[in-house]
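Ligand: heme C. Inputs:
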Amino acid sequence: MKFHPARPLSLAVLVLVLTACGKPSSDQASGNIAKAGEMPDVAKKYSCNSCHAIDMKVVGPGWMDVSKKYQGDAGAATRLSDKITKGGGGVWGVMPMPANPKISDAEKKELVDFILGLAK
Ligand code: HEC
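Predicted complex:
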Protein backbone atom coordinates (compact mmCIF):
# COMPACT_ATOMS: atom_id res chain seq x y z
CA MET A 1 0.00 0.00 0.00
CA LYS A 2 1.52 3.26 -1.17
CA PHE A 3 1.49 6.23 1.05
CA HIS A 4 0.84 9.58 -0.58
CA PRO A 5 1.74 12.40 1.67
CA ALA A 6 -0.68 15.23 1.36
CA ARG A 7 0.71 17.67 -1.09
CA PRO A 8 0.88 21.22 0.02
CA LEU A 9 -1.74 23.20 -1.63
CA SER A 10 0.35 24.70 -4.37
CA LEU A 11 -2.23 26.89 -5.95
CA ALA A 12 -3.82 29.59 -4.00
CA VAL A 13 -7.46 29.61 -4.68
CA LEU A 14 -8.17 33.10 -5.71
CA VAL A 15 -11.77 33.89 -5.44
CA LEU A 16 -12.45 37.14 -7.08
CA VAL A 17 -15.78 38.19 -5.83
CA LEU A 18 -16.94 40.89 -8.08
CA THR A 19 -19.79 42.14 -6.07
CA ALA A 20 -22.04 44.69 -7.54
CA CYS A 21 -21.24 47.34 -5.01
CA GLY A 22 -21.54 50.28 -7.35
CA LYS A 23 -25.28 50.45 -7.45
CA PRO A 24 -26.52 53.91 -8.30
CA SER A 25 -28.24 55.46 -5.35
CA SER A 26 -31.67 56.62 -6.20
CA ASP A 27 -32.86 57.76 -2.83
CA GLN A 28 -31.43 61.26 -2.70
CA ALA A 29 -34.75 62.86 -1.94
CA SER A 30 -35.50 60.97 1.23
CA GLY A 31 -35.41 62.38 4.70
CA ASN A 32 -34.24 65.83 3.85
CA ILE A 33 -36.46 67.74 6.23
CA ALA A 34 -33.68 67.10 8.72
CA LYS A 35 -31.60 69.51 6.67
CA ALA A 36 -33.48 72.31 8.39
CA GLY A 37 -30.78 71.76 10.99
CA GLU A 38 -28.37 73.39 8.58
CA MET A 39 -30.37 76.58 8.36
CA PRO A 40 -29.26 79.60 10.40
CA ASP A 41 -30.94 79.98 13.79
CA VAL A 42 -32.86 82.98 12.56
CA ALA A 43 -34.67 80.69 10.08
CA LYS A 44 -35.97 78.72 13.05
CA LYS A 45 -36.82 81.87 14.98
CA TYR A 46 -39.21 82.90 12.16
CA SER A 47 -40.28 79.32 11.38
CA CYS A 48 -39.00 79.54 7.82
CA ASN A 49 -38.15 75.87 8.23
CA SER A 50 -41.78 74.93 8.70
CA CYS A 51 -42.39 75.73 5.01
CA HIS A 52 -38.90 75.48 3.54
CA ALA A 53 -36.14 72.91 3.36
CA ILE A 54 -32.83 73.42 1.67
CA ASP A 55 -32.96 70.82 -1.06
CA MET A 56 -36.62 69.99 -1.52
CA LYS A 57 -39.94 71.71 -1.90
CA VAL A 58 -42.10 71.64 1.22
CA VAL A 59 -44.81 74.31 1.22
CA GLY A 60 -42.46 76.82 -0.34
CA PRO A 61 -39.63 76.14 -2.81
CA GLY A 62 -36.41 74.47 -1.69
CA TRP A 63 -33.85 77.14 -0.89
CA MET A 64 -31.27 75.54 -3.16
CA ASP A 65 -33.72 76.00 -6.06
CA VAL A 66 -34.30 79.60 -5.03
CA SER A 67 -30.55 80.14 -4.94
CA LYS A 68 -30.06 78.61 -8.40
CA LYS A 69 -32.86 80.66 -9.88
CA TYR A 70 -31.29 83.95 -8.81
CA GLN A 71 -27.59 83.29 -9.44
CA GLY A 72 -26.18 86.26 -11.32
CA ASP A 73 -29.29 88.36 -10.65
CA ALA A 74 -27.97 91.57 -9.12
CA GLY A 75 -31.37 92.69 -7.87
CA ALA A 76 -32.25 89.39 -6.24
CA ALA A 77 -31.01 90.19 -2.73
CA THR A 78 -33.20 93.29 -2.49
CA ARG A 79 -36.26 91.61 -3.98
CA LEU A 80 -36.00 88.53 -1.78
CA SER A 81 -35.41 90.66 1.28
CA ASP A 82 -38.55 92.62 0.44
CA LYS A 83 -40.51 89.46 -0.12
CA ILE A 84 -39.51 88.10 3.27
CA THR A 85 -40.92 91.22 4.92
CA LYS A 86 -44.06 91.61 2.82
CA GLY A 87 -44.77 88.08 1.66
CA GLY A 88 -46.49 87.39 -1.64
CA GLY A 89 -46.88 84.70 -4.25
CA GLY A 90 -46.88 84.00 -7.94
CA VAL A 91 -43.21 83.21 -8.50
CA TRP A 92 -43.17 79.51 -7.56
CA GLY A 93 -46.86 78.71 -7.56
CA VAL A 94 -50.21 79.93 -6.33
CA MET A 95 -49.38 79.51 -2.67
CA PRO A 96 -48.23 82.85 -1.24
CA MET A 97 -45.48 83.29 1.31
CA PRO A 98 -46.65 84.98 4.51
CA ALA A 99 -45.28 88.37 5.56
CA ASN A 100 -42.73 88.76 8.36
CA PRO A 101 -43.21 92.45 9.28
CA LYS A 102 -41.16 92.18 12.47
CA ILE A 103 -37.99 90.74 10.99
CA SER A 104 -34.96 93.06 11.25
CA ASP A 105 -32.78 94.09 8.32
CA ALA A 106 -29.81 92.27 9.82
CA GLU A 107 -31.83 89.08 10.17
CA LYS A 108 -33.09 89.35 6.61
CA LYS A 109 -29.60 89.94 5.32
CA GLU A 110 -28.39 86.82 7.12
CA LEU A 111 -31.19 84.76 5.55
CA VAL A 112 -30.84 86.18 2.06
CA ASP A 113 -27.05 85.79 2.13
CA PHE A 114 -27.47 82.23 3.29
CA ILE A 115 -30.07 81.37 0.63
CA LEU A 116 -28.30 83.05 -2.28
CA GLY A 117 -25.00 81.54 -1.15
CA LEU A 118 -26.28 77.96 -1.35
CA ALA A 119 -25.74 77.50 -5.09
CA LYS A 120 -22.43 79.36 -5.27
C1 HEC B 1 -46.34 79.46 5.61
C2 HEC B 1 -45.25 78.97 4.78
C3 HEC B 1 -43.99 79.81 4.63
C4 HEC B 1 -43.17 80.33 5.60
C5 HEC B 1 -43.36 80.28 7.12
C6 HEC B 1 -42.06 80.93 4.91
N1 HEC B 1 -42.20 80.80 3.58
FE1 HEC B 1 -40.88 81.42 2.15
N2 HEC B 1 -42.16 80.86 0.71
C7 HEC B 1 -43.38 80.22 0.91
C8 HEC B 1 -44.04 80.05 -0.36
C9 HEC B 1 -45.39 79.39 -0.57
C10 HEC B 1 -43.19 80.63 -1.32
C11 HEC B 1 -43.45 80.76 -2.84
C12 HEC B 1 -43.99 82.18 -3.11
C13 HEC B 1 -44.10 82.49 -4.58
O1 HEC B 1 -44.40 81.61 -5.38
O2 HEC B 1 -43.89 83.66 -4.96
C14 HEC B 1 -42.02 81.10 -0.63
C15 HEC B 1 -40.94 81.72 -1.24
C16 HEC B 1 -39.78 82.09 -0.61
C17 HEC B 1 -38.61 82.62 -1.27
C18 HEC B 1 -38.46 82.86 -2.78
C19 HEC B 1 -39.18 84.14 -3.12
C20 HEC B 1 -39.19 84.47 -4.60
O3 HEC B 1 -39.81 85.50 -4.93
O4 HEC B 1 -38.60 83.75 -5.41
C21 HEC B 1 -37.70 82.91 -0.29
C22 HEC B 1 -36.32 83.52 -0.46
C23 HEC B 1 -38.30 82.56 0.97
N3 HEC B 1 -39.57 82.04 0.75
C24 HEC B 1 -37.70 82.71 2.19
C25 HEC B 1 -38.36 82.54 3.41
C26 HEC B 1 -37.80 82.94 4.67
C27 HEC B 1 -36.43 83.55 4.87
C28 HEC B 1 -38.74 82.63 5.63
C29 HEC B 1 -38.68 82.89 7.12
C30 HEC B 1 -38.47 84.28 7.49
C31 HEC B 1 -39.88 82.02 4.93
N4 HEC B 1 -39.60 82.00 3.59
C32 HEC B 1 -41.02 81.57 5.56
C33 HEC B 1 -43.88 79.78 2.12
C34 HEC B 1 -43.36 80.11 3.35
